[in-house]
Amino acid sequence: MKFNLSSFFYLSITLLLVFALNKKLGSIPPLGKFLDPFNGFWQQAEPRNATTENTLQIEGLKGKVSVMFDENRVPHIDAENDYDLYFAQGFIIARDRLWQMDFQTRFAAGRLSEVIGEKAVDLDKYNRRMGMGFGARNMEAFVKKDPKMKGVLDAYTHGINAYIKTLKPKDYPIEFKLLDYAPENWKPINSAFLLKLMSATLAAASNDFYMSNALSKFGPEVINDLFPNYPFREDPIIPEGTKWDFQPVGKPAVPEGLSYQTDIKLQPKEEGLGSNNWAISGNKTSTGFPMLANDPHLEMTLPAIWYQNQLTAPGINVYGVTIPGSPGVIIGFNKEVAWGVTNVGSDVLDWYKITFKDHTKREYLVGKEWKAVKKVVEVIKVRGMKTITDTVLYTHHGPVVYQEGEKPKSFPKSNNIPVGFALKWIAHQPSNDIKTFYELNRAKTYADYRAALIHYVAPAQNFIFASKENDIGITPNGYFPLKWKGQGKFLLDGSNPSHEWKGRVPAAHNPTVKNPARGFVSSANQFSTDTTYPYYLHWEFTGYERGARINRQLSTMEKATVSDFQALQNDNYSIHAENIRDVLLKNIHQDQLNERELSALDVLKKWSLRYDAREKAPSIFEWWHKRLAIGIWEDEFSDEKNPMIMPSRDRTVELLISDEKAIWYDNKNTSVKESKQDIITQTYKATIDSLYKIFGEMGSSWEWGHVKGTNIPHLAKIAGFGTKTLYTGGSKTAVNAISQTTGPSWKMVVSLGPKVQAFGLFPGGESGNPGSFYYDNMVEKWAGGKLNSLYYYEKGNPDTKRIKQTISLISKN
Amino acid sequence: MPVCLIGGFFFSKSGKQAFWSGFSSIFMLWVIKMLTLSLPNEHLLANRIGQVFMLPESNNNWIILLLAGAVIGGLVGGLSCLTGNSFQKTK
Lengths: 813, 91
What we know:
Chain A is of the alpha+beta class. Chain A has a domain at 575-708: Penicillin amidase (Acylase) alpha subunit, N-terminal domain, CATH 1.10.1400. Chain A is globular and about 85 Å long. Chain B has one domain. Chain B contains four helices and no strands. Chain B is elongated. In chain B, 52% of the residues are buried.
């Protein structure tokens, strides 16, 4: 053997190449490993049809579990006991969605930097400072005290870990390979983190900071006028006039000397996430038994947010969707009952100004006493960098999310956070929410439904219910803090004990209605009740348009069928367009319009008020009414240093319908005094101009289906893993609430009776593997407004026509 | 890589031959394995991965990935063989 210069050279080159090909360079995965067909991405390329039978021996199982997959690869799990059932659920869902579960847990726990590096540090700090970990730990500790739920969580955890144990690096889901990291063992607290993520998505809205700034600028009279505590038009969830059958525990008094002043570019108030549900009693259906529908609206991503599965074991046989990472079924049905949820959106997040004793910030004022501050040090590992630490100050209210100098410069998520204030958030409260779903999964009657709701804390949901026994009901339900009217509309004073939450509304006093005279119940995130409800839940809810349309349609239904419900879920009619289209047309200066603008106006005149994909009018109307709202409010409500929100759509509609001379129409930034007609005309012209600039001639490119640009991206925004643009109709003010990236993440219709029948799908697929034909197989059907017929497996009686593959899990003992 | 380091040392005649035999054996092995996995998948995944690497959406991305991957694998194979060969006493 000889070592000379050339051999040294070749050896070095070879080693260098191998090294480079196995190293992640920036966001490029290690190329050698990734492109290698024996270990790389090719291993995740699945054939279209799986083998039909499979037996897996797994350590930890007590008995045998049969997992039957139907034509949509929905698993129907049949186990002999609860432990094996949740074990198998964990195993199977990990098999399909492991990376999603890992990534979303890391997101919630503020551990993305470990994988992604420096650019995730602000986000990780934010999630930790908001107390996501604080809340998850509190939830875990509380659930562990309940032996049954602890058992469920443990079994589920063991199942996930049993699956992870089977993986060799070549088997890792593709995103692990792309981001170059390995899956880690699942812990029960991860399920808590995922439930906290739901709270962060649905129960973390806070305009308190913006409202306080607005109050400072305009004073209480204007604020009460423009931001009233009940909207001009409403169709509440609990029908108007429903009597309350309890004695309220007391109305906290509004403290003296209120109006917290702050020392502080317009937030166009983007419509929050919402959902629809409704149920109709047997005397209004064709079958004589109730029907129920639910479509929760979320930010749509792939892998799909939800996962369909059926859980069968002694005492339970439930079908529905679950959140990957959390055991049980969240929305679904069994032989006797069906249930669903929409977001309540009550005020469960408040900010308390902290008065520190001195610059050491070791103590803070409460009443006349100084309380000790608790310092918590978060340790954040960052890929490619030194580990960083972040110190957060905790008070009895909660964490001071940002002190002076801590708010990151360009991090939009933190825009609504006031500096120097402690966060009081329901998500920090210990809770056993999974117990509610555990009991709903096994419910047989209305009484079971009501009993299940008691455990539930957050995020508060409008739980709708229907039973084979012909009961229907709805309950805006969760932990509602006992507040004085308007408490939390503005920032609060952390040193004033009378500003704190006074306990909770007793669970039995949560608003509810059973079998109302009108024969149906529904919710679409609007106000829970009329103004007679004795407790204060919030001053603002989502607009009434969807709820009103749903109620309008349901009230005329006789002998309703599944198709009627499906049609209502797909309904594109907008009550908002109904409210103002004619007002706008009446007030426009037609003599100031040119030919293009007049022909577009004609399109608007002839419009059916439906946000149908093929129509051009929705594009014009949507851009116009948004521009008009900004035109009316922006000059007064934008201030870079003291950001505010502008008045709601409802308040704007009230203005346009009933106020001819309001000062708000005038644009303060111009020397001219604009009238109502002026601002309407100007914004119209600007709208048409923009549409022409971006979409060219008023032809098919102006169709709403194209302009809306609905698409479903990958969870980590990986190119090629999302969908292309989908041509669909819908609007946030129509029942079919599809926007650019939000929409019905699950659509379900259940028809109860001697044999339950159900229909549904979601925009995605059961598999989280982009290399699978079941990754996005339901998207097109979803976009077309169709539903799949769901297979409800009966124990011991498998339908061989629908079952395409069976996996038997047996114990390895 | 180690296989070809040793093989190149013991079995190859010239550097050029070492390189090309190393390259082509890995190249062919990888192409066959890639096709075995990708064809039943109708190239669904490979075409998506092409977009991850900034290729435009196309049904032919898989070809580029296949060639790129096999070339890279072949290169490592060929270089290992060449390195092994370069340790030979007589040339």
